[in-house]
Amino acid sequence: METDSYKTLATASEEVLYKEKNSKFFGYAYPISSEEEAKTIIEDLKKQHYSARHWCYAFQLGTTKIQYRANDDGEPNNSAGMPIYGQIQSFGVTNVLVVIVRYFGGVKLGVGGLISAYKTAAQMALETSAIIEKTIDIHYLIRFDYKNMNKVMRIIKEKNLDIVSQKMEMSCEIEISTRKKNAETTFDIFSNLFEVDIVEKE
What we know:
β4 and β5 form a beta hairpin. The mean pLDDT is 95. α2 (81-90) packs parallel to α3 (110-127). The two termini are 24 Å apart. This protein has two domains: 5-133, Impact, N-terminal domain (Ribosomal Protein S5, domain 2, 2-Layer Sandwich), CATH 3.30.230.30; 136-200, Alpha-Beta Plaits, CATH 3.30.70. The chain is elongated. The chain has a five-stranded antiparallel sheet, with helices on both faces. By secondary structure, the chain is of the alpha+beta class. The chain is 32% helix and 37% strand.
């Protein structure tokens, strides 16, 4: 059964600090909705921690189509980004960015030590975050003449559909959203209505 919900973070995590052999690893987790948003957050952290050595991160976006990136930012290959991404996967969350900022303490940790430190800092950041479940929603635009308003509104109410936005003039347009699992039924009801158009919103 295809699921129509996913887990993500309610809000940004608290800052966490993990120390290993004088190196400091500051961990942060954020809910994000786009790669642009991730970039902005990383830029802000670079300003905040301008004297740090590495700003390693991983993010995952999407529910049916997954997009992810893992960045070692100068650490040895796969010693930072992938361990961070592994934690996003093990917490089962998406639309999430985890950034670990490292201050080098003068003692090399070796690849094994780095993997363990980045993994632990990412885990700590995600553990302080409130994880929530959200439904995967499909948005539709319903277009109709004003005279058909009542029948459209009655269905919206009966089916408990969320109105995202509406334009009410001579010709009306309402954007609704519904859980993925109810989407087909919702579409069918409106497409069978006389003089009412429904299209899925891109």
